[in-house]
């Protein structure tokens, strides 16, 4: 029996929301939500033996199939942009020098898109959103504990090495920090404990990229949350404690971030020059997804007898097979202008959507203090997490990592949650599609 079509609901500012009837999907939606949570556990926690069963692939197929059979499938502009990036990666398989690498990257992006679809659909209720966010934070906290006992590395996957582990902690940190600044009682102190744990894991990882991401995320949250003067005072105190607590070897390692004439910094600059030259030859579509490393030797700059790139490793070594060590140069060289525009639009839409949400909440009269506080807290945390990803990405090859896909989908889900509450509708009866 077909469900009755619900009317169009308008929020107080006149922004239309299409309300999609759920009908019988209420029977299986809670189960699918927990399947999504299990996927997070498998991907982020990487439990031994269980992860080898490849249940992630089965989860992706199931979630996409159930979504496809909805009478009206939730969609958003963000998912359209994600789909466009996927199409560009798929096209690159046809011309990439190593088509298998391009194919694997396309598969990764497809998985990211499917989970983004599931997030915008299954986390678009307040209970599911809050539960999902803190399950994800708990999983990253587990990785942090593991890393502290294993020299800064995670359990595998995209949290396997020290840089990846630090990046994961840096994207989760804004939720814990914002919880400490916004919540009360045990939730505040629990959030503070998680923030401390994630910080310790980043220090143990000794990752400069993770440190940059952590600093960027922390500064954003301190400045974007309310009570800015208090936040700055707390940040100054915590910064002093942090500086006095970390070993001198860590301070020395982080102090080399801005050096460009020696060590790994010179190597990164060497690869970035190669990526730039690569893009100049393939400006529209790049050399293909995950194909920088197969062209690096062809485009590496010739070393000079003096100055930059004068040592033997630059003048004599073939750098084929090396990663770019930069989100921005990786995306530019591998996906070209079109890929960068798509990825940039996803990220810009993430920030603009959350900014619009905060504006709507601020102008809405009669809103409960709890919803007003939560709406602002999660909007800041989601923005701060993306800032952490973008800051760390200056030094890490993370174009195809799930963070921009997942975080932007979470932002869409949170927009739907708050907009439905602003409109006075009952979330368990409908899924909202933001037009």
Structure, briefly:
The protein has one domain. It is 67% helix and 3% strand.
Task: Please outline the helices and strands.
Layout: E1 9-10, E2 16-21, H1 29-45, H2 55-68, H3 77-92, H4 99-122, H5 126-148, H6 162-182, H7 185-205, H8 208-224, H9 228-245, H10 248-254, H11 263-281, H12 292-299, H13 312-315, H14 327-363, H15 369-392, H16 403-423, E3 430-434
Helix pairs in contact: 1-2, 1-4, 1-5, 2-4, 3-4, 3-14, 4-16, 5-6, 5-7, 6-7, 6-8, 6-15, 8-9, 8-15, 11-12, 11-14, 14-15, 14-16, 15-16
State the main characteristics.
435 residues; mainly alpha; 3-stranded antiparallel β-sheet; 16 helices; 3 strands; 67% helix; globular
Compressed to H and E, one letter per element, the order equals EEHHHHHHHHHHHHHHHHE
What form results from the Cα inertia axes? globular
**SS strand fraction:** under 5%
The first-to-last residue Cα distance is 27 Å
Helix content: 55-70%
**CA gyration radius, whole angstroms:** 22 Å
**Assembly state:** single chain
Report on this model:
The protein has 435 residues and is mainly alpha-helical. It has one domain. The chain is 67% helix and 3% strand. It is built from 16 helices and three strands. A three-stranded antiparallel β-sheet has the order 1-2-3, with helices on one face. The radius of gyration is 22 Å and the shape is globular. Mean pLDDT is 85; it is low at 1-24 and 425-435.
